[in-house]
Design brief:
Keywords: ATP-binding, Nucleotide-binding, Transport. By secondary structure, the protein is α+β, with helices and mostly antiparallel strands. It is 23% helix and 36% strand. The chain has a 6-stranded mixed sheet, sandwiched between helices. Strands 2-1-4-5-6 form a 5-stranded antiparallel sheet, with helices on one face. It has a 5-stranded antiparallel sheet with strand order 14-13-12-15-21. Helix 3 packs across helix 4. 37% of the residues are buried. The structure holds adenosine-5'-triphosphate. The site of adenosine-5'-triphosphate has 11 residues, from helix 1. Adenosine-5'-triphosphate (ATP) binds next to helix 1.
Length: 351
């Protein structure tokens, strides 16, 4: 449905996007994450047609809508957008806001579509209200309904929930996923929030410095990060030093770890092993001792920072039922599903 083919963009001769390629199938939801300034919004603006690329192409349903010297105007792309600042028309009521893009349709069809969307976004009966009479979450649902009304083939959403508080954000992002799936809409989100991306998306894209470093399922982005930058950005893990012992073995402060290693690592090579908070288990029968240096209560879970005898600090997410106080000792074992190893020579790119 959506194909980006080596899309590049410069602002004032500075590269902002560098040969970004991805495909998003019809009816799927994609989500771009990455640090501030990495080019996420610029990428959405290129797809919508508000910016023209300096290189590469944007294709919708296989048809080029942006390439070096040919641009389809935004209004002909059938691409909808929902922005962070909700921007409903303040002088129009909810019904007229939603009906805004339907002016070419007969009044009866317009009314039916508005009623259908009001029900779909969970706001039946609020059609006569004005934007200032709605909560932030309700306004965002109206903005979504307005963008969906003309049945765009692709919906782009730029941090649509960032103005909402954390609890509401989670609830509304779940609802929005259901609404998009029911409408069969292909959508591409931008968000700062990894949890939101994982909850919403079929495909997650991790951007850094104008490059798309990985475009993959949420599971693979989390468990099989493509490079150190992705590993460092996602999931609150740390990179722990190790030394290759054999083709499938690494010695670390947590003992010998086994699993496939990247090619080209000879025995004796210095490596970094990714340890995420859910990889480390507090277990009385565990082979290593650690000291609790910090504990953060997270409701059902506790996020510990543990320190091994050699000073290595590691995050550990554990049930909060059996709390371990700061300063106490615990026994730990590593429960890695996938061994993720990077050669130490490939230095960590800064965030
Ligand atoms: N109109 C512009 N002129 C010049 N530079 C720009 C312009 N718009 C954006 N930039 C630069 O392009 C880069 C990418 O910006 P963009 O807004 O796409 O990033 P982002 O990943 O969406 O950031 P954020 O998460 O903070 O919204 C930034 O370095 C920004 O300063």
């Amino acid at each position: 449905m959506l194909t980006l083919d080596r899309l590049s963009l410069r602002f004032d001769h500075q590269p902002v996007l560098d040969r970004v390629s991805l495909t998003l199938d019809e009816g799927r939801i994609g989500c771009l994450i990455g640090p501030s300034g990495c080019g996420k919004t610029s990428l959405l603006r290129l797809i919508a047609g508000f910016l023209a690329p300096d290189g590469g192409r944007v294709l919708l349903d296989g048809e080029p809508v942006a390439e070096a010297h040919r641009q389809t105007p935004p209004e002909q792309r059938r691409v909808g957008m929902v922005f962070q600042d909700i921007a409903l028309f303040p002088h129009l009521n909810v019904t007229d806001n939603i009906a805004f893009g339907l002016h070419r349709q007969p009044p009866a069809a317009r009314r039916a579509r508005v009623a259908e969307l009001l029900a779909r976004v969970g706001l039946p009966g609020l059609g006569d209200r004005y934007p200032h009479q709605l909560s932030g979450g309700q306004q965002q649902r109206v903005a979504l309904a307005r963008a969906l009304a003309p049945r765009p083939r692709l919906l782009l959403l730029d941090e649509p929930f960032s103005a909402l508080d954390a609890e509401l954000r989670e609830q509304i992002s779940r609802e929005v996923r259901q609404i998009l799936l029911r409408e069969g809409i292909t959508a591409l989100f931008v968000t700062h929030d990894q949890n939101e991306a994982f909850a919403l998306a079929d495909q997650v894209g991790v951007m850094h410095g104008g490059e798309l470093r990985q475009w993959d399922t949420p599971y693979r982005v989390y468990h099989q990060p493509a490079d150190r930058t992705v590993a460092d950005f996602i999931g609150g893990g740390v990179l722990m030093p190790g030394r290759v012992r054999d083709v499938d073995r690494v010695d670390t402060a947590l003992g010998e770890l086994r699993g496939p290693l990247p090619p080209g690592l000879a025995p004796g090579a210095e490596v970094d092993v990714l340890v995420r908070p859910d990889d480390l288990v507090i277990d009385d029968a565990g082979p290593r001792r650690a000291r609790v240096v910090e504990c953060l209560f997270r409701g059902a879970r506790m996020l510990y920072t543990l320190e091994l005898d050699n000073g290595q600090r590691l995050p550990c997410l554990a049930s909060s039922h059996h709390a371990h106080a700061e300063g106490t000792g615990v026994a730990v074992r590593l429960d890695l599903e996938h061994l993720v190893v990077f050669a130490q020579s490939s230095r960590l790119t800064s965030r």
